[in-house]
Amino acid sequence: MNRTDRLLAIVLELQAKGRQRAEDLAATFETSKRTIYRDILALGEAGVPLVSVPGRGYSLMKGYFLPPLSFTTEEATMLLLGSEFMAQNFDAQYRAAAQSARRKIEGVLPEKLRGEVQYLRNNIRFIVASTREEGREMQMLQQLRRAIIDRVTVRFHYHARYSKNGQGDEQTREADPYGLAHVGHSWYLTAYCHLRKDMRNFRLERMDGLELLPRTFTRPADFEVGPRARAEQSGIVVRALFDHETSRWVRESRWYDTVSEEETAQGLLVTLKIRQESEIMQWLLGWGQHVRVLEPDSLREQLAREAAAMLQNYRCLETE
User: Fold this and answer.
1) Which of 105, 140, 189, 241 supports an S-S bond with 202, CB 3.0-4.6 Å?
2) Are 272 and 257 in contact (CB under 8 A)?
3) Helix intervals (H) in 47-203
4) Per-residue pLDDT reduced to its tens digit, 99-112
């Protein structure tokens, strides 16, 4: 943190916490007490109304607020909850930035509003699933963010659950990273894949050996990360009919490439766009007899073969 940022942060810290000793501020900003003394002197010379009590520390003159921001309880709560969520889902550098932003927001809230916001924060929680791979994934996020900013091509080993022949495989990929998306507790990299000569979405948990190459690329000016971008990349339209008994639960755990949902006399008609049929097989099979694929015919035939193979597995158990 440079000195200018620290001076502002000291003011915000005093607004948020009231009286602070030099050693308290030094611990907060990871610097020496001597540096804090110089910073306090500089703030006084700049016109910030500080009150100093020997042995008790520093405080701001009552009624002094900086900057003149005004938030409602709901606005402040959303900003603070958002910063906490970002701190949980980004790497160390952005986590520190989110925590710094939270301190700044807290610092400009009047005391009464701060109490209301704290009460709500104590009763609303984002629970983020953690995995043994979290540290490795956070490191990859930092590398990929740098690659996106610098527009450099990356290379990695990718473990795909399904390939074009329906079986899993592992391949070395080189790709131009365009963006990152957080979907359903997982991070996805949207990139131009040099192997497939097309846009692809790569799940970070399935990537190994990430490295940045000494080669730059130009990202399309009209590119955007999100469902619209995924839909434009996809080419197979799937229409599936779910019975009324299941429709509520389908909406609750919808496939993220869903294009539309329509209530019909027979049930919930869901339209999706996917890249290849194998990627949606497990999701559809999970609904059992409560779903019927209307199109394409090839996907319906794949599901029928899979169901027949499952039935054969259980028949084998009966004969053993």
Assistant:
1) 189
2) yes
3) 73-89, 92-107, 111-122, 134-150
4) 787 787 777 777 77
